[in-house]
Amino acid sequence: MLAKLPQIIFALLVMGAVFGIAALMLVVLHQDWEDVLLWLLAAVMIGSGLLVVTMRDIIRCGLAMIVCFLALAGIYVLMGVPLLGAAQVIVYIGAISVLILFAIMLTQTKDAPTRLVFQTQAGPASIAAIVVAILIALAVSATDWGQIERGARLGTEIMSRILFQQFLFPFEIVSVLLLAAVIGGVFLAKREPGGPS
Amino acid sequence: MSNNLDTYLILSGILFAIGSFGFLARRNAISMLMSIELMLNAVNLSIVAFGLFGPRADSVAQGSVFALMVMAVAAAEATVGLAIVIAIYRNKKTPLVDEYDAMRQ
Fold this sequence. Notes:
heterodimer; A: 7 helices; B: mainly alpha
């Protein structure tokens, strides 16, 4: 417990800083609730995304990925597409994250956390990622999107009508694709009789 | 801030850059798959943002349906990718990608 004290203090400091800036935005700068919530969720999403790619223990990386997906689901709800937020929680947190956590448990060796986490190209990779982020930000802010209005809040009825009328054929194709992926996954991960262990 | 397309697009660009860094830099194959999931989420966010600020009345619904399809494809990709990782782990006894050198000799 005492050895973890610096980490706990650091986490409390980070949380305090995030909530402090949010309170500052809300009270002093008179932003409205949606902006402050979006800022909070974006900070949580980016922070836990950075934890996913930098932490040493891979199980903690998987748990940080769940936090990242949850913050993104919150952003979807803020954007006015709550059905997509629900699908994000069900598909990503309920299915994909659990699948990845199972795969981590199946493939972890005893000495894995103590060994090197990054490849030798980690330095150039970080530079390339920062350059990509800056280029995207510059390109987005330099583009004139014209007269755009924010769309209305999306109800389930309109979305299901679009999904099952206009996009019925892609929907069926996706179901075939999922079936093929299930069969392929079972076939690939199956233990061959007489094979190694 | 939340009524601006740029905010969402820059957010998704940052998340995509984080994912690409993880994909290039991590040694563990499952970490690389998690980074791919981060990148797919970033693309999903930008699709939904473009739909939200789209020109037509039903472009919000169209963008959301597109994002749902991306989610389904991501689920299929995760299934097959993790099955491949488990199958390789059974033969090589390591999840680290730089020790997979069977085709290099």
